[in-house]
Specification:
Layout (H helix, E strand, L loop, with lengths): L3 E5 L4 H13 L5 E5 L3 H9 L11 E4 L3 E4 L1 H11 L14 H19 L18
Parallel strand pairs: 1-2
Antiparallel strand pairs: 1-3, 3-4
């Protein structure tokens, strides 16, 4: 299985919290991470254009599904994690507009609820190989 690339908001404290959790849960290195404003991401979007990179949302890319954003990324990550996490895929049965509404509600308020770093923090050394 090729890795799923996850593009996230680097300065977002909430985003970084979940990225650190995913690093720990991803025992088989199926996930790769990069900040939306990293050199890798900017070059990737230049070579693989998508209107999604303009959205204020988490974005993923894999060879099977191409680009995904918002709640679709969450469900794709759960699929990649396998194991007990797959049980959470039951929420993917909810209508997509409902899932995306909930996603956007949290995304819209994340800075006021959790704050923002001045710059994207560096990954922990043990997980540095997961970052592009």
């Amino acid at each position: 299985m090729k890795p799923l690339i996850i593009f996230y908001d680097g300065p977002c404290i909430l985003c970084n919290y979940w990225i650190r959790k995913l690093c720990k849960w991803d025992k088989y290195d199926r996930l790769k991470f990069t900040s939306l404003d990293s050199k890798f991401a900017l070059d990737f979007f230049k070579n693989n254009p998508s209107p999604l990179h303009k959205k204020d949302a988490i974005i993923s890319w894999d060879r099977q599904k191409g680009y995904l954003s918002e709640s679709e990324v969450i469900f794709r990550v759960l699929y990649y994690l396998k194991g007990i996490f797959k049980i959470l895929l039951i929420f993917s049965l909810l209508p997509k507009p409902v899932c995306n509404f909930l996603y956007r509600f949290v995304a819209k308020n994340r800075y006021s609820w959790f704050g923002k770093y001045k710059t994207c923090p560096l990954p922990e050394k043990e997980f540095a190989h997961k970052f592009l």
